[in-house]
Amino acid sequence: MTTRPPTLLMCPPTHFGIEYEINPWMRVEVAADNAEAQRQWHALYEHLKATGITIELIEPVKGLPDIVFTANAGMVYHNRVLVSRFRHPQRQGESPLFREWFESHGFEVVEFAPPDQGGGYDFEGAGDALFCGDTLFAGYRMRSDATCHQQIGKILGVRVIPVELVDPRYYHIDTCFCPLAEDEAIWYPPAFDDYGRRAIEATIPKLIEAEQSEAERFACNAVVVGRNVFTNIGCPRLHDELRERGYTPTATPLDEFVKAGGSAKCLTLRLDGEEAASWKKVV
Ligand code: ARG
Predict the structure, then answer these.
(1) Model pTM?
(2) Partners of 206 in the beta sheet?
(3) Which atom of ligand 1 is nearest to the CA of 126?
(4) What is the atom index within ligand 1 of the atom nearest the CA of 128?
(5) Structural domain boundaries, residue 92
(6) Whose CA is nearest to atom 8 of ligand 1?
(7) Annotated catalytic sites, by residue?
(8) What is the number of the ligand 1 atom nearest to the C-alpha of 175?
(9) Is the CB of 84 under 6 A from ligand 1?
(10) Whose CA is nearest to atom 7 of ligand 1?
(11) Residue pair 166/140 in contact by the 8 Å Cβ criterion
(12) CATH number, position 236
């Protein structure tokens, strides 16, 4: 009972670049090639469009290079959206723009309680909150607070399993975990602590483990549209495994975005709701 057909929000990388360092992948001296980033982004856009889904765009803004990572705009649940509160000042200017976009596109913006009333401080949207089946797996420590995730459970009335992220290179849960179906997900276990690993293993019957070299190519940061799975190039083992399990993987180069610590999934946000994102038959 989502309110929209399968729809993604993306933001063209007109002003994308490495202007600061807020995760271990970013090095200002390792510049992104903006023209190449535009080609890579457009190729991803065309692949996604070819599945038949709708793609909405938000205007890029100079001085906010990471606004391309729309997964961090907020978390959509049916017609409601929790807009992100970014941890790093470099990205905080994005929140009012995303809020305005959501409001002008018919979403109901839902507020967290203030931090002194149990609301928590930081929350980086679908980058840190992914449904597998009806359970929301929510990453905390690097970018989002566990208290925010508890609030989400109360606000939306859903089951939340907060899992701690322990490796700074996998600072958002969508860099090390990707639901494929209600009972199936890709993951990179070393990014979680023991409790997180056990919680994921106990809840999701079918898990595909990314190996280290492919996790570093952002294998887990996949966009899932029905049985189609889109990732960066350099994840052949994962793609073989996906094919064996009946998925159709596509590799598309996204290295300019890896320089910012992001890949395919980070460049998209499911507007028909994160809970609808992975397992509904859409096309
Ligand atoms: N440079 C961005 C940041 O550090 C990358 C965000 C990637 N987004 C994601 N959902 N993993 O915030």
Answers:
(1) 0.96
(2) 184
(3) 10
(4) 10
(5) 7-276
(6) 266
(7) 172, 266
(8) 11
(9) no
(10) 262
(11) no
(12) 3.75.10.10
Instruction: Look at residue 98 in the predicted model and tell me its pLDDT.
Output: 98
Please tell me the total count of domains within the chain: 1
Classify 189 as helix, strand or coil: helix
More confident residue, 76 or 5: 76
Cβ neighbours of residue 140 under 8 Å, at least 6 residues apart? 128, 146, 148, 149, 162, 163, 164, 165
Contact between 138 and 122 under an 8 Å Cβ cutoff? The reply is no
For residue 245, the CA-to-ligand 1 centroid distance in Å is 29
Check pocket membership of 127 for ligand 1, CB cut-off 6 A: yes
Residues counted in the chain: 283
Q: Which two tokens stand for residue 11?
A: 């933001």
Please calculate the CA angle 168-211-51 and round it to the nearest 5 degrees.
95
Over residues 84-140, the pLDDT tens digits come to 999 999 999 999 999 999 999 999 999 888 878 766 789 999 999 999 999 999 999
For 31, the token pair is 């510049």
Is 283 a member of any domain? no
Q: What is the pLDDT of residue 112?
A: 85
Is 261 close to ligand 1, i.e. is its CB under 6 Å away? yes
Residue 24 lies in a domain: yes
For the chain, give the percent of residues with pLDDT over 70. Answer: 96
Summarised one tens digit per residue, pLDDT across range 151-161 is: 999 999 999 99
